[in-house]
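Q: Structure tokens for this one, please.
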Amino acid sequence: MSTNTISSYRFTFILFISFIESQKSIKVNRLFLKDITKECVVEFLDWLQQARHCSDSTRNVRLAAIHSFFNFLQYEAPEKINEWQRILSIRVKKVKKRSMNYLTVEGIKLLLAQPDLSTKKGRRDLTMLALMYDSAARVQEIIDLTPSCVRLTKPFTIKLMGKGNKARIVPLMDEEVAHLKCYMEKNHLLQPNANLYPLFYNTRKEKLTRSGVQYVLQHYANMARSEDPKLIPEKISPHSLRHSKAMHLLQAGVNLVYIRDILGHESVQTTEVYARVDSKQKRMAIEKAYADVIKREVPTWVDNDNLLEWLKNFQ
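A: Here is the predicted structure, written as tokens:
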């Protein structure tokens, strides 16, 4: 499994053990496998949603970690295989598909105009947000970046480590490289000894967290929204920038296969969601396909002045 998956599984069991202690009054040093039943796991999942206000998606992520563990236990402790299979029978919840949240080109421009470039923090934030958009990177991919991942000689590229530790190379535009190079120079990230430092870090020189990136984005989104509420949606996340780049590439006529490679999708079928969402592209395609069909012939008598005059005088 990838580092992120291991971290997610680990946090699931931290929550589960906390639930056992607080809700079942069983200390961790007194916890035995016999105490864990299907009913206990279902109560834990309900607790996540009721006490911690987790979404159905988060509940499903926690359940996936638990399923993985008890699938393992079927082979390690087969004497209780019946109980393990009862736990494995707990179903995931169906998640409603949310509408895709993305910004227009004008919205992206407004958002990126907010950071104050006279400050160190402002320069970092602009470089990070612009890179997230330009590379269509996932938030974790941005967090994990180091200076060694960036190629500042032509052709300009960045190496992103995606899901399943799969790397991909994404080209960068000249404007983004100018911001990135300036940021790295001023923060001494071009020196050989800084190759493995976090590319974007906090005041403690530690790499940013997901919530930290979300906070930065939300801060500038609120500023931009006060200028023009129509351009900035109420709900915005780092993934919105990824969606925005994909939609803008599609609207520019870029082939879905290339967009798939930039986004790091396994299959072009995953990327097709952008084509289904883009109503502008749909309208243009329909208009192009039916242009000749809906064209109406003008009746010959409309341009016949003598006939029209005769009809007016007809009694």
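A few notes: Strands lie at 150-151, 157-161, 167-171. The longest strand covers residues 157-161.
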